[in-house]
């Protein structure tokens, strides 16, 4: 929808509502797919808390990992909550591509199997998005093309260490 600088406030509200509705539905459908892929099953959904007021509505995240009943994200374990949030981030990235993304220990609460799922899913973005991932998890590092670290070999002197893994077969 083209927006000119001569729109009234009510016209701008109408455009924002329509754009939000379209984008929300795209993200919602993508979230359902990504969640099932990252959890190897289960169901998830996004719900508007006030469908009649799109400009002020909240969004409720409902998730049901395999073998569990559908419930609010606040009732999930830390790892399940983290993987659900990661699913939502990836769903948004699938709808709106970005060239660069920073994750700061986003997978810290995940167990090894789910870190593996996270790492495999990153491959979807090889040609679209460059990720900078700050992590302490060795399993996450296995999915990197390059590793950078800071070491302090002598007191007060930090040194950058880098390793290019792109040519190593996984």
Quick summary:
The protein is α+β, with helices and mostly antiparallel strands and 170 residues long. It is built from four helices and seven strands.
Keywords:
170 residues, alpha+beta, 3-stranded antiparallel beta sheet, two-stranded parallel sheet, 4 helices, 7 strands, 38% helix, globular
Molecular structure report:
- The chain is of the alpha+beta class.
- It contains four helices and seven strands; from the N terminus they run H-E-E-E-H-E-H-E-H-E-E.
- It has helices at residues 9-39, 78-95, 112-122, 138-141, and strands at residues 43-48, 59-64, 71-72, 100-104, 130-134, 146-154, 157-164.
- Strands 1-2-3 form a three-stranded antiparallel sheet. The protein has a two-stranded parallel ribbon with strand order 4-5.
- Helix 1 crosses helix 2.
- The longest helix is centred in the first third of the chain and has 31 residues, at 9-39.
- The protein is globular, with a radius of gyration of 20 Å.
- The termini are far apart.
- The mean pLDDT is 91.
Model regions low in confidence, pLDDT < 50 over at least 5 residues: none
Q: Number of helical segments?
A: 4
Report the portion of residues in β strands.
15-25%
What is the ordering of alpha helices and beta strands?
A: HEEEHEHEHEE
Write out the strand line-up for the largest beta sheet, numbering strands in chain order.
Answer: 1-2-3
Largest sheet: 3 strands, antiparallel
Distance between the termini: 45 Å
Mean pLDDT: 91
Q: Which of globular, elongated, flat, extended, rod-shaped describes the shape?
A: globular
Radius of gyration (Å) = 20 Å
Portion of residues in helices?
Answer: 25-40%
Structural class: alpha+beta
Number of strands: 7
């Amino acid at each position: 929808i083209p927006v000119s600088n001569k729109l009234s406030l009510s016209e701008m509200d109408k455009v924002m509502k329509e754009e939000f509705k379209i984008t929300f539905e795209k993200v919602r459908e993508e979230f359902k797919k990504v969640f099932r892929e990252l959890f190897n099953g289960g169901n998830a959904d996004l719900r508007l808390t006030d469908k009649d007021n799109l400009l002020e509505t909240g969004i409720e995240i409902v998730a049901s990992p395999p073998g569990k009943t559908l419930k609010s994200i606040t009732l999930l374990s830390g790892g399940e909550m983290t993987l659900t949030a990661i699913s939502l981030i990836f769903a948004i990235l699938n709808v709106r591509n970005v060239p660069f993304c920073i994750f700061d220990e986003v997978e810290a609460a995940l167990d090894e199997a789910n870190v593996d799922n996270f790492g495999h899913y990153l491959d979807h973005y090889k040609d679209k998005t460059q990720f900078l991932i700050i992590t302490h998890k060795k399993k996450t590092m296995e999915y990197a093309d390059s590793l950078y670290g800071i070491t302090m070999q002598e007191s007060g002197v930090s040194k950058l260490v880098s390793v290019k893994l792109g040519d190593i077969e996984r």
